[in-house]
């Protein structure tokens, strides 16, 4: 395995503490077991693709026949290189697809990769995870390795896998091996490939950790062992909470720059020249995706049940929730400055996915922005070639404008800029609100 340097903010501290991590080193050639990946979404499908070249047989299991059809036809949101890998794996049979849970019984390794969202009250929604784990436990047999990758609250692996397996009479660490290894997949970002991204593994026993690490090492050059599934679970929550706090801070710095007449991108890049003690993020219209807006609430929910308040995290998540409202407010302000009543004003939102280059609408700030503008009576539309049709939280269906003209709109909100797509039409709009802070090809654009 390849050792990967720590990333600590205090210069030199990483060298002092590097020996606190245990790097996994395979002592024998990698096995060629059969693997079943449970859940074929944004994590499960890349996981299956990464395993198929080093595993005798990989089966992707998903309860959605529609999802399986989309995978078979290549209608999935993957980088081009991974799409080619997927096509070859399906053609050769090294990756098979199934919606029959009985495939779990024959597997040597089961990897659980199902979504763990939050509900409208920011409470963990473990319906999919509970169902998946119940199915895995019901088909479990002696000799299996079961690895949970879905981000969740501390204790989930033990509660949903270790204890139910023991109730079935399977001794964890002897009969079956169970571990938690949080996923670290960055959809749409070709700079962060699985093979070069280290993974953490926490086993229910030392033997569990070793067996699980053998599997995980097929997807990455660096695997580190921690003392327990609980330590690995909190590791993933800490990673995403750090990112959430950092993004909330970046947005506040951007607001400060607006008052002071400075460019937040310039300031952030300049601060980033310091080789220690700083890790910058860029501001934006809000935070979306399946991780940052959701995962911190798993810890907040769990600590709340224990009576512990964590004000910094709580405030960061409030700030993130409020950010799309700031975009709505700026739209109204810019229209008012031009003497345009926002009620009935024609506004275009360019790009609605939560992230450039992906078709993922989960938790996208565009949804509350569109909904907020509609509530104010704005005649709002969207343009996103990756998501031509979307559904707002209240069920409203919106069909996108396939070829907008800038002069047809009172204002354009630049929300997400997909690579390789033409946004030159926005220059013809008299008012452009750049919520990305990076759309500087329009001289008259304004930022939040």
UniProtKB/TrEMBL annotation:
Keywords: NAD, Oxidoreductase. Residues 348-441 form the UDP-glucose/GDP-mannose dehydrogenase C-terminal domain. GO terms for biological process: polysaccharide biosynthetic process. One of its GO terms (molecular function) is NAD binding. InterPro entries: 6-PGluconate_DH-like_C_sf (IPR008927), NAD(P)-bd_dom_sf (IPR036291), UDP-Glc/GDP-Man (IPR017476), UDP-Glc/GDP-Man_DH_C (IPR014027), UDP-Glc/GDP-Man_DH_C_sf (IPR036220), UDP-Glc/GDP-Man_DH_dimer (IPR014026), UDP-Glc/GDP-Man_DH_N (IPR001732), UDP_ManNAc/GlcNAc_DH (IPR028359). Transmembrane segments: none annotated. Belongs to the UDP-glucose/GDP-mannose dehydrogenase family. This is Nucleotide sugar dehydrogenase.
């Amino acid at each position: 395995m390849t050792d990967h340097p720590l990333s600590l903010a205090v210069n030199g501290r990483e060298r002092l503490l590097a020996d606190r991590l245990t790097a996994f080193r395979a002592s024998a050639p990698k096995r060629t077991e059969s693997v079943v990946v449970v859940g074929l979404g944004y994590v499960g499908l890349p996981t299956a693709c990464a395993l198929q070249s080093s595993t005798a047989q990989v089966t992707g299991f998903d309860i959605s026949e529609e999802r399986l059809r989309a995978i078979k036809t290549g209608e999935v949101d993957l980088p081009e290189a991974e799409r080619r890998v997927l096509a070859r794996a399906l053609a050769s049979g090294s990756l098979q697809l199934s919606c029959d849970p009985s495939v779990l019984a024959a597997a040597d390794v089961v990897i659980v990769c199902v979504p763990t969202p939050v509900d409208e009250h920011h409470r963990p929604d473990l319906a999919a995870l509970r169902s998946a784990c119940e199915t895995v436990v019901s088909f479990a047999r002696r000799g299996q390795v079961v690895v949970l990758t879905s981000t969740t609250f501390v204790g989930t692996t033990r509660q949903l896998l270790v204890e139910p397996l023991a109730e079935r009479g399977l001794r964890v660490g002897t009969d079956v091996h169970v571990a938690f290894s949080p996923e670290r997949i960055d959809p749409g970002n070709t700079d962060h490939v699985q093979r070069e991204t280290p993974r953490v593994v926490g086993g229910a026993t030392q033997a569990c950790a070793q067996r699980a690490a053998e599997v995980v090492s097929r997807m990455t050059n660096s695997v580190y062992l921690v003392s327990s599934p609980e330590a690995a679970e909190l590791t993933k929550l800490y990673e995403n909470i750090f990112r959430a706090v950092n993004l909330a801070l970046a947005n506040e710095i951007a607001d400060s720059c607006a008052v002071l007449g400075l460019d937040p991108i310039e300031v952030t890049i300049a601060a980033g020249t310091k080789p220690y003690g700083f890790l910058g993020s860029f501001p934006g219209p809000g935070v979306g995706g399946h991780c940052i807006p959701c995962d911190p609430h798993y810890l907040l929910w769990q600590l709340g049940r224990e009576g512990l308040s964590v004000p910094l995290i709580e405030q960061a998540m409030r700030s993130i929730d409020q950010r799309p409202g700031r975009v709505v407010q700026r739209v109204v302000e810019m229209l008012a400055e031009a003497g345009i009543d926002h009620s009935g004003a024609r506004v275009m939102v360019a790009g609605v996915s939560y992230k450039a280059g992906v078709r993922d609408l989960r938790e996208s700030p565009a949804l509350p922005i569109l909904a907020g503008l509609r509530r104010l009576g704005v005649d709002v539309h969207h343009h996103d070639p990756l998501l031509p049709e979307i559904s707002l939280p209240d069920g409203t269906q919106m069909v996108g404008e396939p070829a907008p003209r800038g002069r047809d709109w009172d204002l354009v909100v630049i929300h997400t800029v997909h690579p390789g797509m033409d946004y030159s039409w926005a220059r013809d709009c008299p008012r452009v609100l750049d919520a990305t802070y990076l759309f500087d090809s329009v001289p008259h654009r304004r930022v939040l």
